[in-house]
Specification:
Strand content of chain B: 25-35%
Distance between the termini of chain B: 43 Å
Helix content of chain A: over 70%
Oligomer: heterodimer
Largest sheet of chain A: none
Order of helices and strands of chain B: HEEEEEHEEH
Radius of gyration of chain A: 16 Å
CATH superfamily of one domain in chain B: N-utilization substance G protein NusG, insert domain
Number of strands of chain B: 7
Largest sheet of chain B: 4 strands, antiparallel
Strand content of chain A: under 5%
Number of helices of chain A: 8
Distance between the termini of chain A: 16 Å
Radius of gyration of chain B: 18 Å
Shape of chain A: globular
CATH topology of chain A: Arp2/3 complex 21 kDa subunit ARPC3
Strand order of the largest sheet of chain B: 2-1-7-6
Shape of chain B: elongated
Largest interface: A-B, 35 and 43 residues
Structural class of chain B: alpha+beta
CATH topology of one domain in chain B: mini-chromosome maintenance (MCM) complex, domain 2
Structural class of chain A: mainly alpha
CATH class of one domain in chain B: Mainly Beta
CATH architecture of chain A: Orthogonal Bundle
CATH class of chain A: Mainly Alpha
Chain lengths: 177, 125
């Protein structure tokens, strides 16, 4: 059982890492720094529902550390971590409130709080409280991207839940529920 | 299904309100630009008084940013950080978005932009 769980978590970490590294190569969409799809977030939300909070946290932290090493942006790890951890801290209790059919709602809250965590880190680092104004465009973009990545995770989840081999892989969660 | 629609409406409204406030924020009116490092104002430049182009190097912990100043414009030309967000961003055009180089703790923005410290500390004013 434990090995299956480890394999599932490792698989999701690898998927998140690949998505993260690919997205880092894509040029920024807008002039506002920090606006991006955050596709790796869909893996975090998926893991939160499929495996549970502890595994989602482990996947997130490992992905950020490996991702910042792979993209050569070690200084960015601080921002990814502050955003990612805050996002997950908010998403964890929300998972209890929202069923898997509304995974995308949790993802939206996660994306917005992720941006909030990053802005807080940026304010602390530059000691420029005025950067808080960035929360306006980042909230708007977080809602859109969070809904998108959340729907990706949700559709994947509902489809995979019909497959037997997937059930076997994630069986711990299934039994616990 | 109905709950999904309600949430979608709530989120759409929130996104639109945020975007609307952002676009309604006043733009800068002056031409005075400040360069901050680690939260400290290290230089102010009146862009309207600049007649010819020149370059300016700012260092932070051994890393540097090369800033190009011209008549009415300012941009980061080179940065030895890995991401280069501040270089890709180009010229400081509007008062809303400052040029920020997080690895080198550098912020360049108009002195009277709404993102200013004063605007935050003094409330909406």
């Amino acid at each position: 059982m434990k090995i299956k769980r480890l394999v599932a978590a490792a698989l999701l970490t690898a998927a998140a890492l690949v998505v993260f590294v690919i997205e880092a190569q894509v040029p920024a969409l807008t002039a506002v720094p920090g606006v991006k799809l955050g596709l790796a977030n869909s893996v975090t939300v998926f893991a939160l529902y499929a495996l549970g909070p502890a595994d989602a946290l482990a996947i997130l932290v490992v992905r950020i550390i490996l991702g910042s090493v792979a993209t050569g942006q070690l200084s960015a790890a601080l921002f990814s971590l502050s955003g990612g951890l805050l996002s997950l801290a908010v998403s964890m209790p929300l998972r209890r409130v929202f069923p898997a059919e509304r995974m995308w709602v949790v993802s939206v809250f996660g994306a917005v709080t992720h941006n909030f965590g990053q802005i807080i880190a940026a304010v602390a680092v530059t000691r420029t409280p005025g950067l808080m104004w960035y929360m306006l465009p980042l909230t708007a973009s977080g809602i859109l991207t969070g809904a998108f990545t959340g729907l990706c995770a949700q559709f994947l989840y509902s489809r995979l839940m019909r497959s037997d081999s997937f059930h076997r892989l994630f069986s711990m969660q299934k039994n616990r529920k | 299904m109905k709950k999904n629609l309600i949430w979608a409406a709530v989120f759409a409204a929130a996104a639109m309100i945020c975007a609307a406030i952002w676009f309604l924020l006043p733009r800068h009116s002056g031409a005075s630009v400040g360069i901050w490092q680690n939260g400290e104002l290290i230089k102010t430049i009146d862009l309207s008084a600049v007649t010819s182009e020149y370059e300016l190097t700012v260092e932070y912990e051994g890393r540097k940013n090369v800033i190009r100043v011209g008549p009415g414009r300012i941009e980061v030309l080179e940065a030895d950080c890995p991401d280069g967000t501040c270089v890709k961003r180009g010229e400081l055009s509007s008062g809303r978005t400052p040029i920020v180089c997080l690895p080198n703790r550098l912020v360049i923005r108009y002195m009277d932009s709404p993102g200013g410290v004063d605007a935050v500390a003094g409330g909406a004013g």
